[in-house]
Amino acid sequence: MTQTYVEKIFSNKCGKVYSAGDMVMAPVDGAMIHDITGPLAINVFKEMGGEKVFDPEKVIMLFDHQIPADSIAAAKNHVMMREFAKEQGIFNYDIKEGVCHQVVPEKGRARPGEIIVGGDSHTCAYGALGAFSTGIGSTDMGFVLKFGALYFKIPESIRLEIEGKFPKRTGAKDLILNLAGDIGADGATHKALEFYGGTVSDMDISGRMTVANMAIEMGAKAGIVPPDAKTWDYLSGRADVTPFEMTGDEDAAYAEVRHYDVSDLAPKVAVPHNVDNVVDVTEVAGRKVDQVFIGSCTNGRFEDFAEAAEVLGDGKFSDDLRVIIVPASKEEYLKVLRAGLVEKFVEAGALVEAPCCGPCMGGAFGLLAPGEVSLSTSNRNFRGRQGSTEAGVYLCSPATAAASAMTGVITDPREV
Ligand SMILES: CC(C)[C@H](C(=O)O)[C@@H](O)C(=O)O
Ligand code: SF4
């Protein structure tokens, strides 16, 4: 019998052969809570009569959205969660490590074949390491904290076969924006995306994280790259793992198989106010930008900043806009720092901030005024996402962001 990768994960975890569509109560290997949704989940846990969490070692707690506390309400949430962590014996990364979706993989807390849930929609990011990981609501999270398991309807998978070599200054972000444009914001609702093909094998873990991260922008429950040597390499020294082989069978009952060739891919931009509103950069080139944000769980890694730095060369950022650079984690921040990129970006005119979500969600800082335009390497451009509902957010790759930051208008990075 053949199975998709997702069907294999659930069958292994639940000890019986299951297929897409089946409802199962599956144990979770990890439950991530952060400063925004964590307090709600803890309240639900208590309302359910919860006294002790199912396993403190499997609960991952950190603060990333509003750090350091940007309001009294945020500070109170942090206090409440710190107390809960202490009382439950949960290790709390607090404000020290960075954005949840970077920190969880980095700390070796998402592994191939595991089922991980998180109180955040981009939890699908850990699919980059072959885990079935998905975002859940706070009521479900309260239940998970108590019981360590959750009802899942095993999703059907869409098999994506990606081939070809990325042309100059295009990469993982352009690919996933292209897929979002093609599949649409609800084209994969209740399904999982499974990524295969030479392009995906060649992609480093950073690129796979960019791709898996945005699966939810097509409505998908998960976006998964089955493990290979790169996955095990990334995990060695981070987690106690023994490599194994597991992949979706080619002739499994996929909802759909789609083929893509990236050899002719152009740098892509998602235009306000929807992620699937995707065009080639050439179509919007020349539009004025007020703020450039390079960071977030989608593109806040060393590889992303190295790409931006390569485009920047010895140049400067335009005086007509603000450039905000925020590494996604302490580990990534230190890599950027040690490579001399912080100095380079600061000299070029950027603000480099400590690891956090930053302007991505219009939470802590870097908000836009009415009429302003942001160019952002993050994953969402909904109306009001980064401040005023009268502002516009364009999404792009770090290369496009850097090229545009130098000119002050949306710029094709291939021309810099
Ligand atoms: C605050 C949080 C619940 C939210 C999410 O679930 O994704 C945020 O991280 C986002 O990116 O919109
Ligand atoms: S960086 Fe943005 S997308 Fe990622 S978790 Fe934070 S707010 Fe959500």
UniProtKB/TrEMBL annotation:
EC code: 4.2.1.33
Domain of life according to the entry: Archaea
GO molecular function per UniProt: 3-isopropylmalate dehydratase activity; 4 iron, 4 sulfur cluster binding; metal ion binding
Cofactors that this protein relies on: [4Fe-4S] cluster
GO biological process: L-leucine biosynthetic process
Entry-linked CDD domains: IPMI
Ranges of residues in domain Aconitase/3-isopropylmalate dehydratase large subunit alpha/beta/alpha: 20-408
PANTHER family: HOMOACONITASE, MITOCHONDRIAL-RELATED, ISOPROPYLMALATE_CITRAMALATE ISOMERASE LARGE SUBUNIT
Protein name as annotated: 3-isopropylmalate dehydratase large subunit
Native source organism of the sequence: Methanoplanus endosymbiosus
